[in-house]
Amino acid sequence: MLPITQYMNTIAVSSNSRQKVSDRKTVEVVTGILRIKQAVWLYFLLLIFEGALRKWILPSLEGPLLIIRDPLVLWILIMAWRYGLIAINSYIIGMFSIGVIGVYAAYFFGHGNLLVALYGARILLFHFPLIFVIGRIFDHNDVIKIGKATLLMAIPMCCLIMLQFYSPQTALVNLSVGGEPGGGFSGANNFFRPPGTFSFTNGNTLFFSFTTCFILYFWFNYKTINRVVLVAATLALLLAIPFSISRGLFFQVIISLLFAAFAVMFKPKFLAGVFLIIGGLILTFILLQSTPYFNTATSAFTSRFTSANKIEGGVNGVLFGRFLGGMTKAISFSSNEPFFGYGIGMGTNAGSMLLKGGRYFLVAEDEWGKVIGELGLVMGLTVIFFRMKLAFQISLKSYSSLLKGNVMPWMLLSFGVLSLAQGSWSQPTSLGFCTLIIGLILASSKTVSHSRNRNFYLQN
């Protein structure tokens, strides 16, 4: 297994000569890397349409389809290892070690179910290393392609959630996993939160949060994308906020807009993009306000926002209670838990189904509480430390890229940093979006020269 730099040096020829690469081994490696890229694209598509398979296409296989991306991730890691594309670092070593120890601890000292332990450990053993593989084989151009595909999908996704919003829970579009009616989740004013193509409503929130990053990026670089697609995707996002009845999406859009404003402060050249964003948002909102369909959704969203905020103590309660409160509670209650925790995998929905026959919060609802509850204080805090450390490092890397004029990683960071620090990894959709966006941040942070070399390398 030779490192990728050795292969790159082997075939790094000048653009004038355009020397053909004849070495069989090199051609094999190039082909392998392209296949891994295609596999990452498949991972992305399965992330978006996994719920559709479980609800509408193959409902009888909804259980196995829950982990449909796992074999693909394993194949990607094996191929990446074969071609020297996995740079073993402290993150991978630390998380892998905790994953292995966690399986043994869960079986001998915790819940005692090996299948549940393996299901929980796959997050640290497989999905976490995928972050670095994506960051290694993708470059800035690949991330832009993902962004363009996301904007294209946002348009029909918005149409779908609007249809789900106004359709009864017995309608085909509102089937849940397994083909059962009732795919929506409690909302407001007798309307349900639509899940889109996803298994649960959080997927819809995560998708449009992911989309927001790219929409803002392309407004900063509007010459690099079809204007009609950009405007249509922006309209889809504005419609998705009230029709999703999701406060999480609303807050995430606000956070991304704050990141965009910060980018303008340090790079005034992006100011034109901000004027386009603000002007477009105001004009679109005025036009939408004249439609009764939008007003109905806005009323439901406002009602949900108001009632939920009263329960959680207002906006401060939502932001600080959910984020900082979850952190402090996880640590303060950890003294009452076993040293090795209750067992990795016990805090997942699949784990609760296997252990108790239903979906319950057997450990904790908050991510930090779940991690410490499953693994114990020492290993749990170590996992949290690695996640926070990586979040800090990619924040510095993204800021450095912003100062150099590359706004892509900074905009992706607006969604990725919170997802990495405290996002729920026990839920497959949330785990998938976190894995993907952190990998894309690493990929888009590469220097221009590195990306050009990699492009030439893969094209010859």
Walkthrough of the structure:
The protein has one domain. The protein is globular. The relative contact order is 0.13. It has 18 helices and 2 strands. The N terminus and C terminus are likely disordered. It starts with a helix and ends with a helix.
Largest sheet geometry? 2 strands, antiparallel
Radius of gyration: 23 Å
Structural class: mainly alpha
Q: Roughly how many Å apart are the termini?
A: 21 Å
Number of helices: 18
The amount of helix comes to over 70%
- Subunit arrangement of the protein: single chain
- By DSSP, the count of extended strands is 2
Order of helices and strands: HHHHHHEEHHHHHHHHHHHH
What proportion of the residues form beta strands (DSSP E)? Answer: under 5%
How many individual domains?
1
> Overall 3D geometry?
globular
Sheet with most strands: strand arrangement: 1-2
Mean model confidence by pLDDT? 83
pLDDT < 50 stretches: 1-19, 449-460
Write a compact overview of the structure shown.
By secondary structure, the chain is mainly α.
Q: Layout of helices and strands, plus pairs?
A:
Layout: H1 4-11, H2 24-57, H3 69-82, H4 90-109, H5 114-137, H6 140-166, E1 185-188, E2 191-193, H7 201-220, H8 227-244, H9 247-266, H10 271-289, H11 292-312, H12 314-322, H13 324-332, H14 349-356, H15 367-403, H16 408-422, H17 428-444, H18 448-459
Antiparallel strand pairs: 1-2
Give the tags:
mainly alpha; 460 residues; single chain; globular; two-stranded antiparallel ribbon; 2 strands; disordered C terminus
